[in-house]
Design brief:
Blueprint (H helix, E strand, L loop, with lengths): L4 E2 L9 E6 L6 H10 L6 E7 L7 E5 L2 E5 L1 H4 L2 E5 L6
Antiparallel strand pairs: 1-6, 2-3, 2-6, 3-4, 4-5
GO molecular function: transition metal ion binding
Protein name: Ferrous iron transport protein A
InterPro entries: Fe-transptr_FeoA-like, FeoA_core_dom, Transcriptional_repressor_C
């Protein structure tokens, strides 16, 4: 895996794995929601869509769910890009 980056800057349709979540950057309800949705280290994640204008939400696939996250929340999720499969 490569160096961690955050979910907010992850390119669309790039497979990644959650490395860590900066829980202290999140309000209690936001942190609770992420935990309830299964966000944790080791979980596979992919950015599907971004709002056209910079401040909108980011749609992500985590497992079989599609979840919309505010950009501030996505910025607290650290991910590593999964390597390309060997041919």
């Amino acid at each position: 895996m490569t160096a961690p980056l955050n979910l907010e800057t992850l390119p669309r349709h790039q497979a990644a794995t959650v490395d860590s979540i900066e829980w202290t950057r999140l309000a209690v309800p936001e942190a609770r929601r992420l935990r309830e949705l299964g966000f944790d280290a080791g979980v596979a994640i992919e950015v599907l869509h971004r709002a056209r204008f910079g401040g909108g939400p980011i749609a992500c696939r985590i497992g079989r769910m599609t979840v919309a996250l505010r950009r501030a929340v996505a910025g607290a999720v650290r991910v590593s890009v999964d390597p390309l499969p060997a041919e």
